[in-house]
Amino acid sequence: MLAYIIRRLLYAIPILIGVNLLTFALFFVVNTPDDMARMQLGVKRVTPEAIQKWKAERGYDKPLVWNSAAAGSATLTDTIFFSKSVRMFAGDFGRADDGRDIAREIGQRMGPSLAIAVPTFVLGLFVAISFALLLVFFRATTLDFAGVVLCVAMMSISGLFYIIGGQWLVSKVWHLVPISGYSGGLDAAKFLILPVFIGVIGGVGSSTRWYRTIFLEEITRDYVRTARAKGLPERVVLFRHVLRNALIPILTGVVVVIPTLFMGSLLTESFFGVPGLGSYTIDAINAQDFAVVRSMVFIGSVLYIAGLLLTDLSYTLADPRVRLQ
Amino acid sequence: MTGFAIQPVLLWSDALLFVLIAVVARLSFWASRQEALRAAWLRVLKDGVAMSAATVLAVFVLIGLLDSLHYRARLPDQPGATSRYAVEVNSALDALLSDLRQRAEKTYSAPLATHLYAKEALADSAQREFPRLKYGGAHLGEELSGYEFDIALRASRGLAGGLAVWLLLVALVRRVNGLDLKAVMKVGAGGTAAGAVFITLLPILLLLGLAISLGGGYHVFGTDKVGQDVLYLSLKSIRTGLLIGTLTTLVMLPVAVLLGILAGYVGGWVDDLIQYLYTTLSSIPGVLLIAAAVLMMQVVIDTHPDWFATSAERADARLLALCLILGMTSWTGVARLLRGETLKLRELEFVQAAQAFGVGRFAIMRRHILPNLMHIVLISLVMDFSGLVLAEAVLSYVGVGVDPSTISFGTMINTARMELAREPMVWWSLVAAFGFMFALVLAANLFADAVRDAFDPRSSA
């Protein structure tokens, strides 16, 4: 088991290097730092001095990968590639355009992101699985058909609509909760209820349909027929046998998401003014803060790879037959 | 003085769209001669829900195609000069809707309104009042005599017109095909799929009649901030949505198919390399990779203004680049699927037989593997469509979507969102954008489900 984890971790290294090289190419080779400076300072009236200053402030005034002016190991380390890309492996993301340390900012913003993402995830999973089990229990009836139609309709509605509509109805017409904002401690609950609720509603259509297909596939298996032949009520068959055996396909889709919960949700956070990582990313994109976007790309892929590893490990917990070699 | 009244303009996205249509036509010709594929398509054709969805989609595609025939109008001739053409690029849809396009008000007005949305100080009175619209209800005069009556009259005229066209169509088909009207109306298990098409056509024609009849004198969905008709904007958005939904898949498919088959069939270090490539790409969260790539694309476009002759060309280039970027992030899933399927196919008897006969590797991949993967390609094409249409709106909100000057559902929602805080609320452009998007995506989802069920028997539950 331990050997397997270590091997998987080693396997992640080339992928992370690939991600790192890709972001480096995207941010520094496709466009030179000069292009970025010109873009941010305005294309027309820009002096070479201003570009130099912009680059120096961000540490972009070094050579890309090979510093022939430096001596010794500094030929490799005193470059943009080393200081901006390689240093990310050590958790050093540099500074944002407003001068703040990106790593610290990320640490502070993780809390609010998780405060929304975790309840949304757990509640969404619970609602979708119960709803799917209900549909499977009443399979091939009008209720099942109506449920599937509802799911397809809900899938077809833009996520933006759920957020805008929810904010309008709950906060503006009913005045139940504040329209946006965030505060720490227990006070946060009143700010969190609406985004969590909307997040659950917005995702329930597609996930219910997905779980329903999984359950329906499972219900044709022989062990289900045996269980029914023993005289077990359908309720027990569904909850004790089908649900547990459907865990493997469910885990495949679900566990990989867990680490990325740290990233927060771009849309929800920015609409509700939550100071999490999602809104941080959106603000950075709008302000064209390249350093922050680059860091988030890197962190995102680290978390995704962690999710893949967790998925494999969760198989052994859900199904004792799976042995990882 | 020679020169035509219009000068056709072929934007890159138009060209690709027509290529796509040619490919689809070619493939459907090919499919119609393959027994198994024809059987699968016949299953789709017999599915009432699918045909109803296909009807709605066909209407959207028609609008999108009309909007892809671009031209530049000729400017009035000046004596002694060669004929010149306007800088503005218009489409056939613009020409059809020139009334809607040109009757711009000053700013917001509600659906079917006769007055602007906000009070203004008028020149001849001390009080602030709602100014009269320039075009909305202009035929009623200053006194607005019989406003309700006019609306009701126009509405009923539109509905009657829609109904008449529908009845005419039904009669025509009956005449030609000998279709029984009673049989047509009966959908479901015993009915025909043609019934579903006609039943779907009825509300579409009724709505069309309403829109034409009311749109002649009013702004059916109101006007936006700069006074543009929201109905016009919604119709123009359709092309953008369709382009993003289809071109993305079109540009990513060749890469996905080639790499997927190569990885599965050749194996060895080729397989390792391709797997590494798509694992790396797919481990970057999609939105972030798209955002990073679009940011960089913006830098390229902004630092090279000399590449594009007109602003329409620049917006078009941005749209295409967005499709490319979306394709870059979405080919990995399809490639993985195709690789797995190729691994299975490689071991089957007919491929082994071909190998034994000494058929070359590439000939096997092209002649024996590729045709057997087409159903996966098709399913991914239709399944991705609705997700991409929805993604466009989100990306435009995030600020990494289409060019702000391109009319799309995303840009409509994005501008309308700013006005939600106003009192009274400006809701109409949001509702129009979400409504059109919902119709398009729902139809696409239903159609995609039917196609998947018909081609992939395993998935039908």
Would you mind describing this structure in some detail?
The complex is a heterodimer of chains A (325) and B (461). Chain A is mainly alpha-helical and 325 residues long. In chain A, 70% of the residues lie in helices and 0% in strands. Chain A is built from 15 helices and no strands. In chain A, helix 2 (33-41) crosses helix 3, helix 10 (222-229) packs antiparallel against helix 11 (234-245) and helix 13 packs across helix 14. The termini of chain A are close together. The relative contact order of chain A is 0.12. Chain B is 66% helix and 3% strand. By secondary structure, chain B is mostly helical. The longest helix of chain B has 37 residues, at 230-266. In chain B, helix 1 packs across helix 9 (230-266) and helix 15 (374-398) runs parallel beside helix 16. At the A-B interface, helix 1, helix 2, helix 7, helix 8 and helix 9 of A face helix 10, helix 11, helix 15, helix 16 and helix 17 of B.
Please list the strands of the largest sheet of chain B in the order they lie side by side: 1-2-3
Count every beta strand of chain A, where a strand is a DSSP E run of 2 or more residues: 0
Strand fraction band of chain B? under 5%
Treating each run of at least 4 consecutive H or I residues as one helix, how many helices of chain B? Answer: 17
Mean pLDDT across all amino acids of chain A: 85
